[in-house]
Amino acid sequence: VQAGETVEFSSGVKGIALNLENESVGIVVLGNDRDVQAGDSVSRTHQIVEIPVGESIVGLVIDPLGKSLSKTKSLSSTTYRKVDVKAPGIITRKSVFIPLQTGLKCIDSLVPIGRGQRELIIGDRQTGKTAIAIDTIINQQNSDNIPICVYVAIGQKRSTVAQIYQTLNENNA
Question: pTM higher than 0.90, yes or no?
Answer without folding.
Answer: no
